[in-house]
Amino acid sequence: MGIFDIQILFQTILYFCAFITGFVISIPIGVNRIDFKGQCILYSEAELTNISRYIKRASIDTNCSFPIYLSVFVCIFYGLAVGIYNGFALYKSTKDPTIGSQMWVMPFTLVNSLVTVVMLVSSCMISIGFSTFCDSVKARGDSCNKFENTKWTNREDNTEFDSGPYFKYLTVAQTASWTSFLIWVCQVALGILRLVRNRRLRSQNMSFSDKDTKPIATVEPAD
Fold first, then answer.
1. Rounded distance, CA 46 to CA 165, Å?
2. Largest CA distance in the chain
3. Which of 3, 53, 75, 216 has its CA 20 to 30 A from that of 144?
4. What's residue 217's pLDDT?
5. How far, in Å, are 50, 97, 102, 205 from residue 209 at the CA level?
């Protein structure tokens, strides 16, 4: 078996890492919303009293839905599909070292660039929304995680529910989101590197093919 193409190996690993981060982002945010009876606490404001705890100003569902759907369709589905494609190319590279120059590069680089920008937006949404909620909790001098796994009140029907470890969930989701953003930045950089390498390789091949390699005709001796 030949040697792997190192760049394809790195990209394959990164795609599967992005695939994993998709779960680590979407699941905690989704579970957190379930714990809060369908309420998205990103950008929400909590009202804390000695008697009850509840969401004073609810957030729109999009603030939670956008990071969840982005993680599922981009990180999980797209990351897995392109990771498998790169994994197959990695296997082929052991038999054909030039497989990297034969792969689609520009389309994936463009898509990954778009994904990177959108992932940056999503990460900012999670971080700022998380900070907004924590600021309302800390307004009375308490730490943001003080009221984890405690009874909160749903103002719509005045029923109580357990808040669950909301601080841990959102901390994990926030960390995974920024990690995913850095992964996509690396993918874009590797894609650009591949484009440069392929262009240089084509230029070298063209320069070799243009060289005059024909032997000079020998002159027949005069009679």
1. 15
2. 121
3. 75
4. 41
5. 83, 20, 19, 6
Asked if residue 22 belongs to a domain, the reply is yes
Strands (E), the chain: 45-48, 53-57, 151-154, 159-162
Q: Tally the residues of the chain.
A: 223
DSSP SS3 for 175:
helix
Dist. CA 172–CA 166, nearest whole Å:
10
In a domain, 214, yes or no: no
Q: Crossing angle of helices 62-70/6-35, nearest 10°?
A: 150
Predicted confidence (pLDDT) at residue 147 exceeds the cutoff of 60: yes
Amino acid (1-letter code) at residue 126: I
Q: Domain for residue 118, yes or no?
A: yes
Asked if 145 and 171 touch (Cβ cutoff 8 Å), the reply is no
Range of the domain at 167: 6-205
DSSP H helix total and E strand total for the chain? 6, 4
Confidence of residue 2 (pLDDT cuts 50, 70, 90): low
212 domain-assigned: no
More confident residue, 2 or 70: 70
